[in-house]
Specification:
Length: 169
């Protein structure tokens, strides 16, 4: 099967329940572990029953969708469309690296959870510093940015919550 990204000037979206950007032209990443929880080796059927095994994504095999000038990365780990789309990202920002994002659809929100390091995010005109262990949520339907602001890399998990009325699925 072919997994395809649709590039959107406001964000990157997933065409199916989950997509892992592997090496090559849209090739799925082969399962790296023995069977257990469902691995990303086929396009999931969203009509499958809820009690199915969890999906596991190994961030080490996901191709970055953004790479900063100092080696920082952003990897879209998965998008869960139920009940409305939620994108899950893993970011690494090196000191001084900055990513500028266009506004998402009206009503979209983001959460940022810093695992280690420090960062500054700006939503509209408001800037906020975060450090390891802190989480923030903000309206993402305005221009916003992320910047590594510590002495070392900042690792964070970001979620993007898309309102159901803006979901193309």
């Amino acid at each position: 099967m072919n997994y395809a990204l649709r590039m959107d000037p406001r964000a990157v979206r997933i065409e199916s329940l989950l997509m892992v950007a592997g090496s090559g032209a849209g090739a799925p990443v082969p399962a790296a572990r023995p069977p257990g929880p469902r691995q990303i080796d086929r396009e999931p059927d969203i009509t499958e029953p809820e009690e199915e095994a969890p999906v596991v994504v190994d961030a080490r095999v996901v191709t970055p969708l953004w790479t900063g000038p100092s080696g920082g990365t952003a990897r879209l780990l998965l998008t869960n469309p139920r009940p409305s789309p939620v994108e899950v990202w893993r970011w690494i920002l090196h000191p001084g690296e900055r990513y500028e994002s266009n506004p998402h659809p009206a009503g979209a929100t983001e959460t940022l959870t810093v695992i280690r390091g420090r960062m500054t995010f700006t939503a509209g005109d408001a800037a906020q510093r975060l450090r390891g262990g802190e989480t923030a949520v903000f309206a993402a339907d305005v221009p916003h940015s992320y910047e590594g602001s510590g002495r070392g890399p900042c690792e964070l998990i970001m979620t993007v919550h898309i309102p159901p009325e803006h979901h193309n699925g």
